């Protein structure tokens, strides 16, 4: 009986990451190095956003909030989230290697714990896309009282170092599943 063995992490060349805001790549004034904790070598050079970059990103997010994604049906949002889960599963080895190189956790944990949970989270919320509903609430008198569950706007998130992909998935998947119901 054979058992699956974790993949060895592959050494990557020093990579430079830029910001991306609404398909546009600003040229930030500042950058910082992120080290591979196991070697101390620079894993990547990362763009550091300043206030102006963040303001542009928030403005783009507000436009997107009422843009194309808000017009996608709940069923299609669910299908897209499910497809994203499948793509994460297909690229799990590569993503786990990056996760391990970035934060220093064992490859076994990244590959067999974190990445499966990232994919499962997107799968789970893919199913919720068509289940987010309001309800009527019985009240005395000739009143009609109801709830409508819908997103209210743009939010920012800070992702800690220890489970970056999983923590991002915990925040992104429900927000993407909810879409924007009114007017859609």
Range of strand content? 5-15%
Arithmetic mean pLDDT: 84
Shape, principal axes of CA atoms: globular
Unreliable segments (pLDDT under 50, ≥5 consecutive)?
A: 1-10
Radius of gyration: 20 Å
**Number of separate strands:** 5
Secondary structure class reads mainly alpha
Order of helices and strands: EEEHHHHHEEH
Number of helices: 6
- Provide the spatial order of strands within the biggest beta sheet: 1-3-2
* N-C termini distance: 53 Å
Helix content: 40-55%
The largest β sheet comes out as: 3 strands, mixed
Describe this structure in words.
By secondary structure, the chain is mainly α. Helices cover 46% and strands 11% of the residues. The protein has helices at residues 51-65, 68-71, 74-90, 92-103, 107-128, 164-178, and strands at residues 15-17, 30-35, 42-48, 135-136, 146-147. The protein has a three-stranded mixed beta sheet with strand order 1-3-2, with no helix packed on it. It has a two-stranded antiparallel sheet with strand order 4-5. A hairpin with a 6-residue loop joins strand 2 (30-35) and strand 3 (42-48). The radius of gyration is 20 Å and the shape is globular. The N and C termini lie far apart (53 Å). 18% of the residues are buried.
Quick description:
The chain has 184 residues and is mostly helical. Helices cover 46% and strands 11% of the residues. Helix 3 (74-90) packs antiparallel against helix 5 (107-128), helix 4 (92-103) crosses helix 5 and helix 5 (107-128) packs parallel to helix 6.
């Amino acid at each position: 009986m054979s058992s699956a063995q974790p993949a060895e992490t592959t050494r990557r060349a020093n990579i430079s990451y830029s910001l991306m805001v609404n398909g546009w790549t600003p040229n930030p004034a500042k950058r910082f190095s992120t080290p591979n904790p196991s070697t101390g070598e620079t894993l990547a050079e990362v763009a550091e956003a300043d206030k102006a970059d963040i303001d542009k990103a928030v403005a783009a997010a507000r436009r997107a909030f009422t843009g194309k994604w808000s017009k996608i049906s709940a069923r299609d949002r669910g299908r897209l989230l499910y497809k994203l889960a499948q793509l994460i599963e297909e690229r799990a080895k590569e993503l786990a290697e990056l996760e391990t190189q970035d934060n220093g956790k064992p490859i076994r944990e990244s590959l067999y714990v974190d990445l499966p949970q990232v994919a499962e989270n997107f799968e789970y919320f893919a199913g919720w896309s068509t289940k987010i509903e309001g309800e009527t609430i019985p009240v005395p008198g000739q009143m009609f009282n109801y709830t409508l569950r819908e997103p209210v706007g743009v939010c920012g998130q800070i992702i800690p170092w220890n489970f970056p992909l999983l923590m991002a998935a915990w925040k992104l998947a429900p927000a993407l599943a909810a879409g924007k119901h009114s007017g859609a």
